[in-house]
Amino acid sequence: MFHAVCHSPANDSSSFDNLDKAATRLSQATILPQKFQGEDNIGNCVLALMVADRYGIDVLTAIHQMANAPGGVIADCQVFQIYLFNQCGRFTPIRYIWTGTEGMMNYGVRAESIELATGQAVTGPVFTVQDALDTEYMAVSISDNNEIPYAEMTQFVGSQLVQKYAPDIAGGLTLS
């Protein structure tokens, strides 16, 4: 992990130099996504190293999440929020509970977890197929594919749970 490399680079020139060296080496790896390769993308590698340090995750995980997040903004990425929630150690991993009748408008999903410190169950709202149709972004997905976006529904309710019970994670704050 790059914890010692990345710690407070703005306040310490040797930390910044180490961060720059690590980012330069990363940018030379040909197996990374294109937006992290080459001299022009060293800045993206710096950001990935800083994100990895901030969240206490492996830099390759940060790169993967940044490469797949819309615009590279992983704090806004529902999948990354759920990943961080599941890894933070304060809650059990999120489970998804399906309700209603499959194939019907009342078919829906909710996310649940348990807060480890208190043993209290935490649950998010139910999100149904009808809710998905009423949501512009999901309605477009449905009309394009003629399929109900079940994966998007689980991501939505998972991120709602994270935002409600762990706003520090949803807001991109340091977890430690």
Topology:
Blueprint: H1 3-6, H2 13-27, H3 42-55, H4 59-68, H5 78-87, E1 95-99, E2 108-114, E3 121-123, E4 127-128, H6 129-134, H7 136-145, H8 150-165, H9 167-170
Antiparallel strand pairs: 1-2, 2-3, 2-4
Helix pairs in contact: 2-3, 3-4, 5-8
Proportion of residues in helical segments: 40-55%
What order do the SSEs take from the amino end to the carboxyl end, as H and E?
HHHHHEEEEHHHH
Overall pLDDT? 83
Radius of gyration: 19 Å
Give the count of structural domains: 2
- Beta content: 5-15%
Low-confidence residue ranges: 1-6
Extended strand count:
4
Number of helices: 9
Note the overall shape. flat
Largest sheet: 4 strands, antiparallel
Structural class: alpha+beta
Describe the structure.
The longest helix is centred in the last third of the chain and has 16 residues, at 150-165. Helices cover 51% and strands 10% of the residues. Strands 1, 2, 3 and 4 form a four-stranded antiparallel sheet that branches. It folds into two domains: 3-68, no CATH class; 84-170, no CATH class. Residues 1-6 have low confidence and may be disordered. It is flat and about 60 Å long. The chain is of the alpha+beta class. Helix 2 (13-27) crosses helix 3 (42-55) and helix 5 crosses helix 8. The protein has nine helices and four strands.
